[in-house]
Amino acid sequence: MPRLMTALATVAALALPGLANAQDMDPNVAARQSLMDLYAYNLGVLGGMAQARIDYDADLASAAATSLYHLSMAGTERMWAEGTDNMSVEGTRALPAIWDNAEDFEAHEAALVTAAEAMMEAAGTDLASLQGAMGGLGRACGACHQTYRQPE
Ligand code: HEC
If you take atom 2 of ligand 1, which residue's CA is the nearest one? Predict the structure, then answer.
C-alpha cells in the first residue's frame, strides 16, 4: 500500500502542473496561438526554400502553401474574443488595439488570405516564382505583428 500511495503521489505531481496550465490558458488564446504556430510551420518550409536552406521541392512547396492558404481562411472570430487582450488575460501578446480597430485588424487578416493565395499559385511553379511571392507573404505576417502584437 505505501508503495502504491507513493506511486499515485508521483503521478499526481507529474500531472497537476500540466492541468493547471491548461486551465489557466484562455481557450480562445490557445486556439489563435495554435493557428499562428501552424502558419509559422508552413511558412518555415517556404522561407527555407526561398533562402536555399532547404532544397526546392515543388510538391512540398505547393503542399505548404496550400495548407497556409486554407489555414488563413479559418474562421477566427471566436479566437479574438473581446476581453482576451494582454491587459486582461495572462499568456497573450495580443494588444488591446485589435479591438479598438477591429476593421483594420480584419483587413490584415484578409491581406494574409490574398498573399497566401498568391503563394499557393506560385509555390509549385519554380523556385523563382516562390521567391517572388515570399516578400508579400512575409509582409502580410509582419505588418499585423508590428501593429497588433506586443514585442517580446
Ligand atoms: C491579422 C493579424 C495577424 C496576421 C496576419 C498574422 N499574425 Fe501572427 N500573431 C498575431 C497576434 C495578435 C499574435 C499574438 C497572439 C497572442 O499571443 O494571443 C500573433 C502571434 C504569432 C505567433 C506566436 C504564437 C504563439 O504560440 O504564441 C507566431 C509564431 C505567429 N504569430 C506567426 C505568424 C505568421 C507566420 C503569419 C503569417 C503567415 C502571421 N503570424 C500572421 C497577429 C497576426
Answer: 144
